[in-house]
Records
---
Amino acid sequence: MNESERSSFDFERRFDDSKALEWMQENWSKSFIFCGLYAALVFTGQYFMKERPKMNLRLPLMLWSFSLAIFSIMGAFRTGTHMLHVLVNSGFKESVCDTSFYRAPIIKFWAYAFAVSKGPELGDTVFIILRKQRLIFLHWYHHITVLLYSWFTYKDQVAGGSWFMTMNFMVHAIMYTYYAFRAAGWKIPRRFAMIITATQMIQMVMGLTVLGFVYRWIHDVNCPSNMDNIVWGSIMYLSYFVLFASFFYNTYFKDGSKSMESKGSKAE
């Protein structure tokens, strides 16, 4: 047993990545069905709540956010450790082109869990609808597209995925922790919300950068990808950046005197 296997948990060692890949390749297209049902929930849910009083749901929201925060923190630690090891020992190019994380002893579980988790994360929207907060386009557009792209990327196991996954885990670790404390009633300075949104924009810039390098190295034997993934990923990250930048400006500068609650701060 090598060092990485000794440092892994039993559920990580026992995870069958070959069966996970087989399932995703057979079922990834069902993500379109899930997104269709989700979109229907967005609009019918808002219509259902239109004449009804908003629900408090503070405790369920706190538990929900706390659970996703713990999951994201663990994922960020596991995948981040792997990424740091690759960067230090093999360099940036290998960190971009590396696809071994889909099968690596420790993080093969987290690679699959990351993709699958984009389904349950749709539940964020339920709280917004039932609490009658403002549901902005960025929120539900992001949930739909990230689910589709995550499943599409995992089933092809292309280069760049390690960066996408690690960055998202890290941002979500911060974001859901913030939401959990907010739901618990903590008064958190406004600048922390600004930092989270700024971090999300940096994530989008890095996503575009990584895809640019994947395109540059796509003909290398050890940097497998395809143009469909690069094109759709670039469109996704570029649209996210524009929408997050617009949200950042409108929330913190144009309408700076308004509270986060009135703007519907939960963009992701």
---
Amino acid sequence: MAAFIESGWEYLITHFSEFQLASVGTFLLHESVFFLSGLPFMVLERAGFFSKYKIQSKSNTFDAQGRCVLRLMFYHICVNLPVMLASYPVFKRMGLRTTLPLPPWDVVLTQILFYFILEDFLFYWGHRVLHTKWLYKHVHSVHHEYATPFGLTSEYAHPAEILFLGFATILGPALTGPHLFTLWLWMVLRVLETVEAHCGYQFPWSLSHYIPLYGGSHFHDYHHRVLYTKSGNYSSTFTYMDWLYGTDKGYWKVKALEGDAKQS
């Protein structure tokens, strides 16, 4: 498997420049993973499949879904792509590389674990700030237009928020100067995580059933369906920040009531 990955990587660095891979390549990989993982949840909602696993009984209209997709494409091309192009010199200065051999798996996994921990800390406080009155009204309310989220709404946000919270995602890699392979793997995992958190479904195979402190879709769905001043659940991937600062108490009360209702 490792030999196969290195062979594929050798093809990439032979046929494309480092700048092309780090900027355009990163953008294309992000778009592919994001839309391929997010679009199925839009189809599920429209078709009504797996309705017993849907967290909310409400569904978005076709027009609302279409508006989300069009705005996402606009934001990604006009915000994400320019940022990726402009950030290459910064990452290069911080040590980004594409050469073979690929880094050992223990290095890759250690760096990604660090990225998750740092991102959780920064995202929690950034997200909590966005729920203050002025910032919510003028910036974060765009993301909350969808009280019933589906996978693609994970990146539906005001351009200022994209830049603001995006800082939490890229700071870890910027500090460590990783191999591009590590950066790509981190991006793929982060995209899949946030799409799953916004998918609107709690499946039996959802990671929140198996990974301690993992938030998942049910945890984040609560954040979307209550008033912004009372929502809590500000964390991105793991829930320890909300637990430490008591901003998950409302969620656990509601979950307990829902559990009692099912038993009665």
